[in-house]
Task: structure prediction
Amino acid sequence: MQQYRITLLPGDGIGPEIMAVAVDVLKAVASQFNLEFVFQSALIGGAAIDAVGEPLPQETLATCQNSEAVLLAAIGGPKWDTLPRHLRPETGLLGLRAGLQLFANLRPAKILPQLIDASSLKPEVVSGVDLMVVRELTGGIYFGQPRGIFATETGEKRGVNTMAYSESEIERIGRVAFETARKRGGKLCSVDKANVLEVSQLWRDRLNQLSSEYADVELTHLYVDNAAMQLVRAPRQFDTIVTGNLFGDILSDIAAMLTGSIGMLPSASLGSAAPGLFEPVHGSAPDIAGQDKANPLAMVLSAAMMLRYALNQPVAADRIEQAVLQVLDQGDRTPDIMSPGMNPLGCQGMGEALLQALSRAA
Result:
């Protein structure tokens, strides 16, 4: 029996609800594939602030570092929005990514036929969309120095953030992107702003140099403003997109909404050796927390990505993804993806439907 240590970070808002569903699903899959998961829970975000006064306790980071993979549900909420920046929940997430040296974020956006009507775009535009955004995660403007709000000689305040990338940072995210594209459709689009930003000029130059090692992958380039437009105009043209931290943050959310609900989309954050971090792309939704209205499917699909990318259990990952498709085929829907004639379920009900689908597949 293969054993894995998994750190659970339920976080805030709907986090504990959707995490409970994902854990039940993982336990069911473990019994079917002779696996054993040793779960250990830890605090992060607002829950950690309330308990110990900081968004990322050192104990949490150490627990994550001592595991094979980390599952994160959601963090944040209005309760903590007025705190100083270093005490906000989001700062804990940035610290976790940095502490685990997670430099590559993989965000898939795939249109499921069962949910095509949920997209705000016309079916003929989004039908068949299946793309992956590879976002650099620990560099760029979110981490560059200098940064801060400073007083000028005239006494006026001036805000400063620095966008910076080294060749080595560009190369390592580039290799992840090329390898990802190689496993998909063999097309990689690099997104930058090389017409006005020197950092983007270096980014483009290094990606072009790297492409000589991946002759089987077609490399193209787009400026970020055009890429944003193309994502909503003709999204099927994209297979794999690679870009920096700021641009990736924006474009991955645009890609997410092509599917109609951010509640359906998982993500993976990977490093060179440290455990990967797997989380849904949606937020903590404090307005529906505790009401059994949350959609747990993105959390469950994040667990499937964990099995595939961190634990090398692709067959078990397939089993979970097939169960998700089965519950959608039978018309089960949470409120965010509800449509006329479908079967309304809450978070717990969707979890039970998934367990039934997994039981039938055993």
